[in-house]
Design goal:
The complex is a heterodimer of chains A (501) and B (319). By secondary structure, chain A is an alpha+beta fold. Chain A contains 15 helices and 18 strands. Chain A has four domains: 32 residues, no CATH class; 146 residues, no CATH class; 131 residues, Dna Ligase, domain 1; 110 residues, no CATH class. In chain A, α12 runs parallel beside α13. About 9% of the residues of chain B have low confidence. Classes of the chains: A alpha+beta (501), B alpha/beta (319). Chains A and B meet through α13, β10, β12 and β15 of A and α3, α4, β5, α5 and β6 of B.
Chain lengths: 501, 319
């Protein structure tokens, strides 16, 4: 029995058959139920766990159709249009699903109809029934109003005027119903009988293509799965060729015997069609998920889907020359690295028009467009040594001694090492980009060389005598009428930002 | 047959001796058997019994003549080369040297669009900084489109990417940057990298921070230390207190010729090549080149001299 807090009282949210037989009803107070039967076992409701379970079930139901929607808190919609013949007909599909779920220990009910509304009603009040298109009104007529998915106030209102069955509501004149109970009621009625189209919202995007294989003897080994990817992608290839497309994102769904579903996704920078390459990408992916992918008693259904596809440029191979080996290109290496180690591992730099050093370069995942000409970037600057070859992730604060406050530093201490500066060039003053960051302060950059010949890029943030950033000025404007004493100016701070060659 | 083998052995020993005297890698000695390039044969790093050598195209000249002579024509192109920096601070200089080699490499590659992959562990990049494409573009003229950076979370991942990348002929070269002396980077690991580089015909530069020299399969190991930069050259001579072309001290630690050598090199950004450091001679003409004007303003003062001072302005304004 599960309890839930409702209106400041613990009430019963769900109960099993045994409890029902002992005259306990839904919505009854826990205290009352305990008074009747002191030996009740009560558990606090856990909506998160319920949701997770329902999601897991929805994942499992993917084996029947890619269109699975979650109907909170306790239902699932499966759109089996065009899938039923794979399981020997609609009835066989429903029986199979009910049997398998019952084997897993769930108490399930199902209804099959051509509208989600009618299926909802059947699942709750006449499990196992199949209603063909057009018969919904007759089938639903004897059901109570709960079958209509109405908001509680509307339902209570209808019941209070004596309309207790769906049939009675359907027979009643529509105009007064709409006036009294709102358009929502008519919408639900129309949806149930099929007068209005209702779409379910599938949880997963529907893949463009997918191939699957079922096993009587579940498989579990990583090598087996990898080989299977090869076989499945071989089947996928003609379909992709027919569409003139290649896959840029693939998903391998592994359905474990006990209902757990694993999804492994790989992406590719270029459209893929070659089964060998797909297998190669999955080899890397499987190598990394190796430990987390627990085959348990094995997988009985494996599906490979193409999530995204792009037009595939056919390249005519030369008659004499060897066919180009795609397996050796840099793009494939990047894809494999991404499949194994994740996004953002391999990047290429792009220069941006900004004089703030850390904003002047952004790193974009993947390989640069091959069409770009290296000379387009323009010639290197005249002052070749003004920027370092390595930039620290973020400027690291250093303790600096300078001869004159505004002058170049004489010593600095960085990472517990003392550096005596022999020569310094600078300052190169970089004004802040106030349109990005109103709190930024002016930086004075110095190139310095220590006694051993190491060269660093140091900067002093802020000016002596107090510099006011745009942010400070705005604050002062707000506080201007007070004419109070201004906050003490921030002292300049020193940082090391880069290392020169 | 036994006679023949013994004769070969003697010939081999003699060849090795001549190589030692001449300071040339033994397999680069001309004469002997047929010269069939066999890039895949790993024994190329050893003295060959039949005197087979590598074709000349498989070398990457550094561009500094004494260094190239010492290395026997340049660094091996299809091989692993180790470049050591003793501290994390020196990794800037080491990176600069590797980039100089990268520039030589890019200019040698027929297809100018092949990218250079710079790969390191997250530890290395957080310690010594991430390669800064704007700086590389300015100082080395390497276009950002020719650069690929990879940051591997762990050493094993970095080695995996390195091995996979070393196999690709589609990369101009690979710079693999690692830190310290991890146990994983042993003779076997370097041999794997070296073999793949040989097979692909592209070099792998193993840049190592704060590492002790350990047995390696790389035929060449270089040590890079920083050297003070020279002064900037201006029209009126060197500018005092300025930082000019960066210098570096290169020590050849291990090479096939087994001749030690230390060179002071600096990067010439205008010609985009490394050069041996030369100290500019003083002008042979004493005094200014242009005769002073008879009547008119004085000659322009040397660059960098303070012409006026704000204090003077104030005095001028007050008085």
């Amino acid at each position: 029995m599960v309890s839930r807090r409702e209106d400041n009282a613990q009430r019963i949210a769900a109960l099993d058959g045994t409890a029902e037989q002992r005259n306990i009803r839904l919505g009854m107070g826990i205290a009352e139920a305990r008074a009747m039967h002191p030996d009740l076992e009560v558990t606090e409701e856990d909506p998160d766990a319920d949701r997770r379970l329902l999601e897991a079930l929805a994942d499992w139901c993917d084996r029947y159709t890619p269109l699975v929607a979650v109907d909170r808190p306790d239902g699932l919609y499966l759109d089996i249009t065009g899938c039923a013949h794979l399981f020997g007909g609609e009835a066989a599909l429903m029986d199979d699903a009910l049997r398998r779920l019952a084997d897993q220990g769930f108490n399930v009910r199902a209804g099959l109809a051509s509208t989600p509304g009618a299926a909802y009603a059947l699942a709750r009040f006449h499990s196992g029934a199949i209603v063909s298109a057009g018969d919904e009104a007759d089938a639903l007529a004897p059901f109570p109003l709960a079958a209509l998915r109405l908001p509680p106030p509307v339902r209570q209102g209808l019941e209070s005027v004596g309309l207790r069955r769906v049939g009675a509501v359907l027979a009643a004149p529509r105009a007064p119903l709409a006036r009294r109970f709102g358009p929502r009621l008519l919408q639900r009625l129309d949806q149930a009988v099929g007068a209005v189209e209702e779409a379910i919202t599938p949880r997963q995007p529907v893949p463009a293509l997918s191939v699957e294989r079922r096993f009587f003897e579940p498989i579990g080994g990583t090598e087996e799965i990898e080989q299977l990817v090869g076989t499945l992608s071989n089947t996928l290839q003609p379909a992709l060729a027919q569409r003139g497309e290649g896959a840029t994102a693939l998903e391998l769904a592994l359905f474990r015997v006990d209902g757990e579903v694993f999804r492994l996704r790989v992406r590719s920078a270029r459209p893929l069609r070659d089964p060998r390459l797909m297998q190669l990408l999955y080899r890397e992916k499987l190598a990394t998920v190796g430990e987390t992918l627990d085959p348990g008693y094995g997988f009985d259904l494996v599906r490979l889907s193409v999530l995204f596809a792009q037009p595939y440029a056919e390249i005519q191979s030369d008659l004499i020359a060897e066919p180009g080996d795609e397996a050796t290109t840099v793009a494939l290496l990047v894809d494999r690295v991404e499949a194994r180690l994740g996004h953002q591992v391999v990047v290429h730099p792009v220069l941006k028009a900004s004089h703030i050093p850390e904003r002047a370069v952004v790193h974009v995942p993947g390989v640069a467009e091959a069409t770009m000409d290296p000379t387009e970037v323009g010639p290197p600057s005249l002052d070749a040594f003004s920027r370092p070859v390595r930039l620290l992730r973020r400027p690291e604060p250093v303790d600096v001694t300078a001869e004159v406050p505004e002058g170049p530093p004489a010593h600095f201490r960085w990472r517990r090492m003392h550096h005596r500066i022999t020569r310094a060039e600078g300052p190169e003053r970089l004004a802040p980009e106030w349109w990005h960051d109103p709190q930024a302060r002016t930086r004075d950059y110095f190139r310095v060389e220590d006694r051993d010949g190491h060269r660093y890029w140091l900067f002093r943030e802020g000016l002596y005598g107090g510099e006011r950033s745009l942010f400070d000025l705005q604050k002062e404007d707000e506080a201007a009428p007070l004419e109070g004493d201004a906050p003490p100016p921030l002292q300049p701070r020193w940082y090391v930002h880069g290392i020169f060659a | 047959m036994a006679m023949h083998a013994a004769a070969q052995e003697t010939l081999c020993a003699l060849r090795r001796e001549i190589a030692r005297i001449e300071g040339v890698p033994p397999e680069r000695l001309t004469g002997g058997g047929a010269k069939t390039p066999d890039a895949l044969d790993d024994t190329a790093v050893l003295v060959r019994r039949d005197g087979r050598g590598l074709p000349d195209g498989d070398l990457l000249p550094v561009g500094v003549e004494p260094l190239d002579t010492l290395l026997g024509g340049g660094l091996p192109l299809a091989a692993l080369t180790e470049i050591h920096a003793q501290t994390a601070r020196a990794s800037g200089v080491a990176a600069g040297f590797a980039l100089a080699l990268g520039v030589a490499l890019l200019s040698q590659t027929p297809d100018k669009r092949l990218p250079l992959l710079w790969l390191g562990t997250a530890e290395v990049f957080s310690e010594a900084g991430f390669p800064y494409a704007a700086g590389l573009h300015r100082a080395y003229g390497i276009s950002p489109t020719q650069l690929l950076f990879a940051e591997a979370p762990k050493l094993s991942d970095a080695l995996w990417i390195g091995e996979e990348a070393a196999r690709l002929p589609d990369l101009a070269g690979v710079i693999l940057e690692l830190r310290g002396n991890p146990r994983m980077l042993d003779l076997t690991a370097t041999r794997r990298l070296h073999r793949r580089a040989r097979a692909a015909g592209r070099p792998v530069f193993l840049l190592r921070q704060s590492a002790e020299p350990t047995p390696t399969a790389a035929p060449v190991r270089l040590r890079v230390e920083p050297a003070p930069a020279t002064l900037r050259q201006t029209l009126t001579g060197p500018l005092q207190g300025s930082l000019g072309p960066p210098g570096l001290l290169l020590t050849v630690d291990k090479s096939r010729a087994a001749r030690p050598g230390t060179f002071t090199l600096e990067w010439n950004p205008h010609e985009r090549r490394l050069q041996a450091r030369t100290f500019p001679k003083q002008s042979t003409v004493p005094g200014p080149v242009v005769s002073p004007p008879a009547n008119g303003s004085d000659l322009a003062p040397p660059f960098g001299q303070v012409m006026d001072h704000p204090a003077n302005w104030r005095r001028a304004a007050g008085g």
